[in-house]
Design a protein that fits this description.
With 309 residues, this protein is mostly helical. It contains 13 helices and no strands. Helix 1 packs antiparallel against helix 10, helix 5 runs parallel beside helix 7 and helix 6 runs antiparallel to helix 13.
Protein backbone atom coordinates (compact mmCIF):
# COMPACT_ATOMS: atom_id res chain seq x y z
CA UNK A 1 0.00 0.00 0.00
CA UNK A 2 1.18 3.52 -0.75
CA UNK A 3 0.59 6.64 1.30
CA UNK A 4 -3.10 7.33 1.85
CA UNK A 5 -4.05 3.67 1.50
CA UNK A 6 -3.82 3.51 -2.30
CA UNK A 7 -2.48 0.32 -3.89
CA UNK A 8 1.25 0.52 -4.52
CA UNK A 9 0.83 -0.48 -8.18
CA UNK A 10 -1.82 2.12 -8.88
CA UNK A 11 -0.91 3.99 -12.09
CA UNK A 12 0.82 7.25 -11.29
CA UNK A 13 -1.37 9.17 -13.71
CA UNK A 14 -4.58 8.17 -11.93
CA UNK A 15 -3.61 9.55 -8.54
CA UNK A 16 -5.58 12.50 -7.27
CA UNK A 17 -2.42 14.62 -7.32
CA UNK A 18 -2.51 14.28 -11.12
CA UNK A 19 -6.23 13.98 -11.80
CA UNK A 20 -7.28 17.11 -9.89
CA UNK A 21 -4.89 19.55 -11.64
CA UNK A 22 -5.56 17.72 -14.93
CA UNK A 23 -9.29 18.36 -14.50
CA UNK A 24 -8.69 22.00 -13.56
CA UNK A 25 -6.47 22.62 -16.60
CA UNK A 26 -9.02 20.99 -18.90
CA UNK A 27 -11.91 23.02 -17.49
CA UNK A 28 -9.93 26.28 -17.67
CA UNK A 29 -8.69 25.78 -21.22
CA UNK A 30 -12.10 24.53 -22.31
CA UNK A 31 -13.49 27.93 -21.31
CA UNK A 32 -10.86 30.00 -23.12
CA UNK A 33 -12.23 29.53 -26.63
CA UNK A 34 -15.32 31.63 -25.93
CA UNK A 35 -13.16 34.31 -24.29
CA UNK A 36 -10.66 34.35 -27.16
CA UNK A 37 -13.50 34.66 -29.64
CA UNK A 38 -14.64 37.81 -27.83
CA UNK A 39 -11.10 39.22 -28.13
CA UNK A 40 -11.20 39.06 -31.93
CA UNK A 41 -12.38 42.40 -33.26
CA UNK A 42 -11.12 45.95 -32.80
CA UNK A 43 -7.77 45.01 -31.24
CA UNK A 44 -5.35 43.13 -33.55
CA UNK A 45 -4.76 39.54 -32.34
CA UNK A 46 -1.05 40.03 -31.70
CA UNK A 47 -1.74 42.91 -29.32
CA UNK A 48 -4.30 40.83 -27.42
CA UNK A 49 -1.73 38.04 -27.10
CA UNK A 50 0.86 40.59 -25.93
CA UNK A 51 -1.40 41.90 -23.16
CA UNK A 52 -2.31 38.37 -22.09
CA UNK A 53 1.27 37.28 -21.53
CA UNK A 54 2.40 40.58 -20.10
CA UNK A 55 -0.22 40.08 -17.36
CA UNK A 56 0.71 36.40 -17.02
CA UNK A 57 4.47 37.04 -16.88
CA UNK A 58 4.23 39.75 -14.22
CA UNK A 59 1.93 37.53 -12.13
CA UNK A 60 4.24 34.53 -12.45
CA UNK A 61 7.35 36.50 -11.51
CA UNK A 62 5.54 37.95 -8.50
CA UNK A 63 4.54 34.44 -7.45
CA UNK A 64 8.09 33.16 -8.01
CA UNK A 65 9.66 35.91 -5.91
CA UNK A 66 7.11 35.32 -3.14
CA UNK A 67 8.22 31.66 -3.14
CA UNK A 68 11.86 32.70 -2.88
CA UNK A 69 12.70 31.81 -6.49
CA UNK A 70 15.19 34.14 -8.12
CA UNK A 71 14.60 34.78 -11.83
CA UNK A 72 18.30 34.78 -12.64
CA UNK A 73 19.69 32.01 -14.82
CA UNK A 74 22.91 31.02 -16.52
CA UNK A 75 23.32 31.42 -20.28
CA UNK A 76 21.63 28.09 -20.97
CA UNK A 77 18.68 29.08 -18.77
CA UNK A 78 18.15 32.39 -20.55
CA UNK A 79 18.31 30.58 -23.89
CA UNK A 80 15.81 27.99 -22.67
CA UNK A 81 13.42 30.73 -21.47
CA UNK A 82 13.73 32.59 -24.77
CA UNK A 83 13.01 29.51 -26.89
CA UNK A 84 10.09 28.50 -24.64
CA UNK A 85 8.69 32.03 -24.91
CA UNK A 86 9.00 31.96 -28.71
CA UNK A 87 7.34 28.57 -29.17
CA UNK A 88 4.69 28.48 -26.44
CA UNK A 89 3.80 32.10 -25.77
CA UNK A 90 4.43 33.70 -29.15
CA UNK A 91 4.08 31.42 -32.19
CA UNK A 92 1.49 29.08 -30.66
CA UNK A 93 -0.95 31.78 -29.62
CA UNK A 94 -0.43 34.09 -32.58
CA UNK A 95 -1.32 31.20 -34.89
CA UNK A 96 -4.37 30.22 -32.81
CA UNK A 97 -5.77 33.75 -32.46
CA UNK A 98 -5.42 34.29 -36.19
CA UNK A 99 -7.02 30.94 -36.97
CA UNK A 100 -10.20 32.07 -35.19
CA UNK A 101 -10.55 34.85 -37.74
CA UNK A 102 -10.98 32.19 -40.45
CA UNK A 103 -12.87 29.33 -38.78
CA UNK A 104 -15.13 28.91 -35.77
CA UNK A 105 -13.66 28.46 -32.29
CA UNK A 106 -15.16 24.96 -32.18
CA UNK A 107 -13.16 23.85 -35.21
CA UNK A 108 -9.98 25.42 -33.81
CA UNK A 109 -10.47 23.60 -30.50
CA UNK A 110 -11.05 20.29 -32.26
CA UNK A 111 -8.02 20.63 -34.55
CA UNK A 112 -5.85 21.58 -31.57
CA UNK A 113 -6.75 18.22 -30.02
CA UNK A 114 -4.26 16.76 -32.52
CA UNK A 115 -1.55 17.97 -30.10
CA UNK A 116 -1.70 14.41 -28.79
CA UNK A 117 -0.06 13.07 -31.95
CA UNK A 118 3.14 15.19 -32.18
CA UNK A 119 3.55 15.03 -28.39
CA UNK A 120 3.60 11.23 -28.53
CA UNK A 121 5.89 11.13 -31.58
CA UNK A 122 8.31 13.80 -30.34
CA UNK A 123 8.32 12.19 -26.89
CA UNK A 124 9.43 8.93 -28.48
CA UNK A 125 11.94 10.62 -30.78
CA UNK A 126 13.58 13.12 -28.43
CA UNK A 127 12.94 11.68 -24.97
CA UNK A 128 12.99 7.95 -25.68
CA UNK A 129 9.59 7.51 -24.01
CA UNK A 130 7.93 4.18 -24.66
CA UNK A 131 4.34 4.14 -25.87
CA UNK A 132 2.55 1.24 -24.18
CA UNK A 133 -0.20 -0.71 -25.92
CA UNK A 134 -2.95 0.66 -23.67
CA UNK A 135 -1.82 4.22 -24.35
CA UNK A 136 -1.88 3.60 -28.10
CA UNK A 137 -5.36 2.06 -27.88
CA UNK A 138 -6.60 5.03 -25.90
CA UNK A 139 -5.01 7.35 -28.45
CA UNK A 140 -6.79 5.59 -31.29
CA UNK A 141 -10.18 5.70 -29.56
CA UNK A 142 -9.77 9.38 -28.66
CA UNK A 143 -8.68 10.38 -32.16
CA UNK A 144 -11.72 8.60 -33.60
CA UNK A 145 -13.81 10.80 -31.32
CA UNK A 146 -11.90 13.91 -32.39
CA UNK A 147 -12.52 12.97 -36.04
CA UNK A 148 -16.27 12.79 -35.44
CA UNK A 149 -16.20 16.15 -33.66
CA UNK A 150 -14.23 17.67 -36.53
CA UNK A 151 -16.66 16.34 -39.15
CA UNK A 152 -19.57 17.75 -37.15
CA UNK A 153 -17.95 21.17 -36.72
CA UNK A 154 -16.77 21.32 -40.34
CA UNK A 155 -20.35 20.74 -41.52
CA UNK A 156 -21.56 23.64 -39.38
CA UNK A 157 -18.77 26.05 -40.29
CA UNK A 158 -20.20 28.94 -42.36
CA UNK A 159 -16.85 29.79 -43.97
CA UNK A 160 -15.77 28.61 -47.40
CA UNK A 161 -13.17 25.92 -48.10
CA UNK A 162 -10.39 28.43 -48.64
CA UNK A 163 -11.04 30.11 -45.31
CA UNK A 164 -11.36 26.72 -43.62
CA UNK A 165 -8.04 25.53 -45.08
CA UNK A 166 -6.30 28.71 -43.91
CA UNK A 167 -7.77 28.37 -40.41
CA UNK A 168 -6.85 24.71 -40.09
CA UNK A 169 -3.33 25.39 -41.39
CA UNK A 170 -2.76 28.16 -38.85
CA UNK A 171 -4.07 25.95 -36.06
CA UNK A 172 -1.75 23.10 -37.06
CA UNK A 173 1.20 25.51 -37.01
CA UNK A 174 0.19 26.44 -33.47
CA UNK A 175 -0.06 22.76 -32.54
CA UNK A 176 3.48 22.13 -33.76
CA UNK A 177 4.90 25.08 -31.80
CA UNK A 178 3.02 24.02 -28.64
CA UNK A 179 4.20 20.43 -28.97
CA UNK A 180 7.87 21.42 -29.21
CA UNK A 181 7.41 23.59 -26.10
CA UNK A 182 5.80 20.62 -24.32
CA UNK A 183 8.80 18.44 -25.14
CA UNK A 184 11.12 21.13 -23.78
CA UNK A 185 9.30 21.03 -20.45
CA UNK A 186 9.83 17.28 -20.20
CA UNK A 187 13.63 17.51 -20.54
CA UNK A 188 16.20 17.48 -17.76
CA UNK A 189 17.18 21.02 -18.74
CA UNK A 190 13.71 22.24 -17.66
CA UNK A 191 14.05 20.54 -14.28
CA UNK A 192 17.31 22.38 -13.62
CA UNK A 193 15.47 25.68 -13.13
CA UNK A 194 12.61 26.73 -10.79
CA UNK A 195 9.38 26.38 -12.75
CA UNK A 196 7.59 29.55 -11.64
CA UNK A 197 10.57 31.80 -12.33
CA UNK A 198 11.26 30.11 -15.68
CA UNK A 199 7.63 30.43 -16.78
CA UNK A 200 7.49 34.07 -15.72
CA UNK A 201 10.59 34.97 -17.71
CA UNK A 202 9.44 32.89 -20.72
CA UNK A 203 6.03 34.59 -20.68
CA UNK A 204 7.65 38.04 -20.65
CA UNK A 205 9.97 36.99 -23.48
CA UNK A 206 6.88 35.83 -25.35
CA UNK A 207 5.06 39.10 -24.63
CA UNK A 208 8.04 41.10 -25.96
CA UNK A 209 8.08 39.01 -29.15
CA UNK A 210 4.30 39.30 -29.48
CA UNK A 211 4.54 43.08 -29.12
CA UNK A 212 7.30 43.26 -31.73
CA UNK A 213 5.21 41.26 -34.19
CA UNK A 214 2.11 43.34 -33.42
CA UNK A 215 3.89 46.66 -33.92
CA UNK A 216 5.55 45.55 -37.16
CA UNK A 217 2.32 44.14 -38.65
CA UNK A 218 -0.40 46.43 -37.31
CA UNK A 219 1.26 49.56 -35.94
CA UNK A 220 1.10 51.20 -32.52
CA UNK A 221 -0.61 49.48 -29.56
CA UNK A 222 -4.40 49.31 -29.61
CA UNK A 223 -6.63 48.56 -26.65
CA UNK A 224 -10.35 48.25 -26.05
CA UNK A 225 -11.74 49.45 -22.72
CA UNK A 226 -14.88 47.36 -23.12
CA UNK A 227 -15.49 45.54 -19.81
CA UNK A 228 -15.62 42.05 -21.34
CA UNK A 229 -12.35 42.68 -23.21
CA UNK A 230 -10.50 43.87 -20.09
CA UNK A 231 -11.89 41.04 -17.96
CA UNK A 232 -11.03 38.62 -20.76
CA UNK A 233 -7.39 39.75 -20.76
CA UNK A 234 -7.22 39.32 -16.98
CA UNK A 235 -8.84 35.87 -17.11
CA UNK A 236 -6.64 34.67 -19.96
CA UNK A 237 -3.49 36.10 -18.36
CA UNK A 238 -4.01 35.10 -14.73
CA UNK A 239 -6.15 31.97 -14.82
CA UNK A 240 -5.69 30.47 -18.30
CA UNK A 241 -1.95 31.23 -18.45
CA UNK A 242 -0.28 31.78 -15.06
CA UNK A 243 -2.35 29.17 -13.20
CA UNK A 244 -3.09 26.70 -16.00
CA UNK A 245 0.42 26.49 -17.48
CA UNK A 246 1.93 25.98 -14.03
CA UNK A 247 -0.44 23.07 -13.42
CA UNK A 248 -0.06 21.67 -16.93
CA UNK A 249 3.72 21.66 -17.05
CA UNK A 250 3.79 20.11 -13.57
CA UNK A 251 1.55 17.30 -14.86
CA UNK A 252 3.63 16.94 -18.00
CA UNK A 253 6.84 16.39 -16.03
CA UNK A 254 5.20 13.50 -14.16
CA UNK A 255 3.18 11.62 -16.79
CA UNK A 256 4.97 12.70 -19.96
CA UNK A 257 3.89 14.85 -22.94
CA UNK A 258 1.71 12.21 -24.63
CA UNK A 259 -0.63 11.68 -21.68
CA UNK A 260 -0.59 15.34 -20.71
CA UNK A 261 -1.79 16.24 -24.21
CA UNK A 262 -5.04 14.41 -23.48
CA UNK A 263 -6.23 17.67 -21.95
CA UNK A 264 -6.42 18.99 -25.53
CA UNK A 265 -8.66 16.04 -26.48
CA UNK A 266 -11.23 16.88 -23.80
CA UNK A 267 -11.03 20.67 -24.23
CA UNK A 268 -13.32 20.66 -27.34
CA UNK A 269 -15.94 18.73 -25.38
CA UNK A 270 -15.80 21.28 -22.55
CA UNK A 271 -15.89 24.12 -25.08
CA UNK A 272 -19.03 22.65 -26.67
CA UNK A 273 -20.69 22.16 -23.29
CA UNK A 274 -20.05 25.81 -22.40
CA UNK A 275 -21.23 26.86 -25.83
CA UNK A 276 -24.44 24.92 -25.14
CA UNK A 277 -24.98 26.97 -21.99
CA UNK A 278 -23.96 30.40 -23.29
CA UNK A 279 -24.22 30.34 -27.08
CA UNK A 280 -27.17 28.04 -27.75
CA UNK A 281 -25.00 25.28 -29.22
CA UNK A 282 -27.08 22.29 -30.34
CA UNK A 283 -25.66 18.77 -30.12
CA UNK A 284 -26.05 16.22 -32.89
CA UNK A 285 -25.69 12.46 -32.66
CA UNK A 286 -22.30 12.78 -34.39
CA UNK A 287 -21.02 15.31 -31.87
CA UNK A 288 -22.31 13.27 -28.92
CA UNK A 289 -20.64 10.12 -30.24
CA UNK A 290 -17.37 12.00 -30.72
CA UNK A 291 -17.48 13.35 -27.19
CA UNK A 292 -18.13 9.90 -25.74
CA UNK A 293 -15.24 8.36 -27.69
CA UNK A 294 -12.88 11.17 -26.68
CA UNK A 295 -13.72 10.66 -23.01
CA UNK A 296 -13.42 6.88 -23.32
CA UNK A 297 -10.00 7.20 -24.94
CA UNK A 298 -8.89 9.49 -22.13
CA UNK A 299 -9.90 6.98 -19.47
CA UNK A 300 -8.14 4.12 -21.28
CA UNK A 301 -4.91 6.05 -21.79
CA UNK A 302 -4.64 7.62 -18.35
CA UNK A 303 -5.15 4.24 -16.66
CA UNK A 304 -2.31 2.66 -18.60
CA UNK A 305 -0.08 0.85 -16.12
CA UNK A 306 3.03 0.99 -18.25
CA UNK A 307 4.61 4.38 -17.53
CA UNK A 308 5.04 6.66 -20.51
CA UNK A 309 8.56 7.62 -19.49
Amino acid sequence: MSEGGAPADRPQSTRLAILIPFALVTLIWGSTWIVIRDQIGTVPPSWSVTYRFLVAGVAMLGYAIARGERPWFDARGWGFAGLLGLLQFCLNFNFVYRAEAHITSGVVAVVFALLLVPNALFGRLFLGQQLGRQLLIGCGVAMAGVTLLFVHEARRDPHGMGEAAMGVGLTLAGVLAASLANIMQATQAARAYPMAAMLGVAMLFGAALDGTIAWSLTGAPAFEWRASYVLGILYLGLVASAVAFTLYFGILRVIGPAKAAYSSVIVPVIAMLLSTLFEGYRWSGLAAAGAVLALAGLVIALRARRPNR
